[in-house]
Design a protein that fits this description.
By secondary structure, this protein is mainly beta. It contains one helix and 46 strands. The strands form twelve sheets. It has a six-stranded antiparallel beta sheet with strand order 7-6-1-35-34-33, with no helix packed on it. Strands 36, 38, 40, 43, 45 and 46 form a six-stranded mixed beta sheet that branches. Strands 28, 29, 30, 31 and 32 form a five-stranded antiparallel beta sheet that branches. The two termini are 25 Å apart.
Length: 545
């Protein structure tokens, strides 16, 4: 849809928003569960121990590759049970409000978990023999039925004073993948902090990167972007970011005056802007752990910065919500507040505690490490509750916090699909509607030589299209009432019509219902309209996170 048309809808929504009525309150407290460590008998210690939850991580997984069913959240770490259910180290939502093991779980502590576009799930971590306190790495892939292992003993070399880890995956469309973390060799192949599985063996990416790699991502130009945890020279110099063009590493995102001294996480906004958490220094200020965005030439704080809580680790994770807000995870002080926060939210202007924070009543030892969000507004945040060896009377556990959307957005398809020039015209929901965000739908079955139109209104209709436009497809319905509706030309790309509408960040819009559908107008030179048909329609309710 053309930008001015989206703006026209925003103006109409603003007019509706100022009508009498009260805004709905959409806060949603976190629900938390414990992931409890495995009970161990360790030689030389006269009482049983529970393993310390480490490597706690989360991701979003399209577990069945079915666009009509929701994705699910996955959490990994070092635990023997989650929410009272016996689960070994890797759990997925079971669709009934609980958690279940992924393929029976994993026999190792999971440090990183990633979902491939083909529906397969990847997990990496460390398997420890507590009798000898020796550890070996492990990397596995789950295809929906069974696990395949890619890494077996002997272990890779551990850099001095560090524990070797795999901290992130990048899965390519062909099923090959890249792993990054803190290691100097993998599978017997020398590789500094980053390596690729090419389908049959491990290969290094040039000379690699020193300082450990925290996160990797594929850029639109095909290059690989890596975030360095502790820059210390090497191929990227002292830069916290480096790109790989297939041959060489090059330092990237080097500020003109501000400097990043280490990255804990990064994400790209919907507009493509890089946002990162870590240690940043600005002219005439001290180094602080906070969140910053790349302006194109320099690093700029995202709102008022964070201070590291004396015993905390600052901001360690970033999650982008479906409405465009950012969530920062970690253990930090926010905006000079002396309270310890574990979850904070940026609404485009300022940071605030996210619904009282994750588990506000637990001891200060809790620090959040990672999180993931679903399009329906569900958010999971995971963290370590204890970082000390347990005593005979205590447990070693992690916190898994789940937050539902405060006022859920919804989209329901209705009506019939008409017959277009190339076949049936179908409308599918891509994203729910959120204030401050957008709602997105996609039409399919369109002819690239036709003209597509979008219709958005505030009441439904069941009027046959042929009753309004003579000669229109007899199976098509006009499912949107034309009163106060907006009609606009929409682009067609490879037979599909993407429809995205930005919504104002107004609480008074919560609960408002819109109706939308797409139409195809076939044109012939010198003749005019030769055919007109419509898709099914969607009833969209605006929500808030």
């Amino acid at each position: 849809m053309a930008p001015w048309k989206a703006s026209a809808l925003a103006v109409l929504l603003l007019a509706l928003a100022v009508q009498p009525g009260s805004a709905r309150q959409c806060s949603s407290p976190w629900s938390t569960e414990l992931a409890v460590g495995e009970v161990l008998t360790v030689p030389g210690i006269p009482f049983p121990l529970t393993t310390i939850p480490i490597g706690i991580c989360a991701t979003r997984w399209d577990h069945d590759q079915n666009p009509s069913t929701p994705d699910r959240l996955v959490v990994g770490g070092s635990f023997a049970s989650l929410g009272g259910t016996a689960i070994a180290n890797l759990a997925v939502q079971n669709g009934a409000g609980g958690w279940t093991a992924v393929g029976g779980g994993r026999p190792f502590a999971v440090y990183a978990v990633e979902a491939g576009a083909d529906g397969r799930l990847y997990a990496a971590g460390i398997s420890t023999n507590f009798a000898t306190f020796q550890s070996v790495p492990a990397i596995s892939r789950f295809d929906g039925n069974q696990w395949q292992n890619f890494l077996a003993p002997p272990p890779y070399t551990v850099p001095t004073s560090f524990v070797a880890t795999v901290d992130d995956f990048l899965v390519d469309a062909d099923g090959t993948f890249i792993v990054a973390g803190n290691f100097t060799s993998i599978g017997g192949v020398n590789a500094q902090s980053i390596a690729r599985w090419n389908g049959s063996n491990w290969t290094a990416l040039g000379t690699g990167l020193t300082g450990g790699v925290r996160r990797i991502e594929r850029l639109p130009n095909g290059q690989l972007l890596a975030a360095v945890a502790f820059p210390s020279g090497g191929a990227a110099g002292t830069s916290s970011f480096a790109t790989w063009n297939g041959t060489t590493w090059t330092a990237a995102f080097v500020g003109a005056s501000a400097q990043c001294f280490g990255v804990t996480d990064f994400e790209f906004s919907p507009s493509g802007q890089l946002v990162a958490s870590g240690a940043f220094a600005y002219p005439s200020t001290q180094v602080v752990d906070q969140v910053a965005r790349w302006t194109g030439q320099d690093w700029q704080p995202l709102g008022v910065g964070f201070n590291t809580e004396p015993e905390g680790n600052g901001v360690t994770g970033l999650v982008l919500l479906p409405d465009g807000d950012w969530v920062a995870l970690g253990r930090f002080q926010l905006n000079g507040n002396s309270d310890v926060m574990r979850a904070a939210r940026f609404n485009g202007t300022s940071w605030s505690v996210f619904d009282q924070g994750l588990a506000p009543d637990v001891p200060d030892e809790l620090q959040t490490l990672d999180g993931a969000a679903l399009p329906d507004g569900q958010l999971v945040a995971v963290g370590i509750l204890s970082d000390e060896i347990t005593s005979p009377t205590s447990i070693s556990a992690a916190i898994v916090g789940l937050r539902q959307a405060g006022c859920p957005g919804a989209a329901t398809l209705f009506g019939t699909s008409g017959a277009g020039v190339s076949g049936p015209l179908n409308l599918a929901v891509a994203e729910p509607a959120w204030i401050g965000g957008n709602f997105a739908l996609t039409g399919s079955g369109f002819s690239n030589t036709s003209l597509a139109v979008s219709l958005i209104g505030f009441s439904p209709s069941t009027l046959p299209l042929a009753a309004v436009f003579a000669g229109a497809d007899p199976s098509s319905l006009l499912s949107v009432d034309l009163t106060n509706a907006l009609l606009a030309v929409a682009p067609i790309t490879a037979g599909e019509v993407p429809l995205t509408i930005n919504l104002p960040d107004l609480p008074s819009l919560v609960g408002l219902t819109l109706y939308t559908q797409l139409g195809e107008i076939a044109l012939a030179p010198g003749i005019g309209v030769v055919a007109f048909a419509t898709t099914n329609a969607a009833q969209v309710t605006i929500g808030a996170l």
